Amino acid sequence: MSSLTPESSPELAKRSWFGNFISLEKDEQIFVLIRDKPLSSIKADIVHAFLSIPSLSHSVVSQNSFRAEYKSSGGPSVFQKPVKFQVRLVFEILVKEMGLYSVTFTLLTGPSRRFKRVVETIQAQLLSTHDQPSVQALAAPPPPPFLP
């Protein structure tokens, strides 16, 4: 007769009562695709977005990678778990002629819902700077030549 242990039966694993309300999924990823914009401009927009969000700190991990941590400023900090995530910039080789970059946000630790809200804020800033007329003008076809 075998005895059931938390290792042999996932149903017996000890769970936090609050775990049902707070999703703590790890390795959750959100992708943002940006086309026809130089890498330096995308990096600058990401850093600008980081700096514009209160309670968010970031560090540069490598040339195309950042780590960020968001600590909520409202409510008692005892119950607020910080959101830690990584941001990676990748040039998509398959569509190199289009100049397509993939910005990948990966949740490392923290509540999934808060991670999604922070990334939505960053994404809105990235896409709003991408829609500026100067950027659109770079992507627009050149005007027809003037013939006398």
Give a description of the structure.
With 148 residues, this protein is an alpha+beta fold. It has one domain (23-134): Kinase associated domain 1, KA1 (TATA-Binding Protein, 2-Layer Sandwich). The protein has three helices and five strands. It has helices at 39-52, 112-130, 133-139, and strands at 29-35, 56-62, 65-70, 83-91, 100-109. The chain has a five-stranded antiparallel β-sheet with strand order 1-5-4-3-2, with helices on one face. A hairpin with a 2-residue loop joins strand 2 and strand 3. It is elongated and about 45 Å long. Mean pLDDT is 74; it is low at 9-17, 19-25 and 132-146.
Spell the H/E element sequence.
Answer: EHEEEEHH
Task: Catalogue the unreliable spans.
Answer: 9-17, 19-25, 132-146
Estimate the mean pLDDT confidence. 74
Q: How many distinct folded domains?
A: 1
Strand arrangement, major sheet:
1-5-4-3-2
Key terms:
3 helices, alpha+beta, five-stranded antiparallel sheet, disordered C terminus, single chain, TATA-Binding Protein, 5 strands, elongated
Spell out the blueprint of helices and strands.
Blueprint lengths: L28 E7 L3 H14 L3 E7 L2 E6 L12 E9 L8 E10 L2 H19 L2 H7 L9
Antiparallel strand pairs: 1-5, 2-3, 3-4, 4-5
Give the structure's gist in a few sentences.
This is Serine/threonine-protein kinase BRSK2. With 148 residues, the protein is of the alpha+beta class.
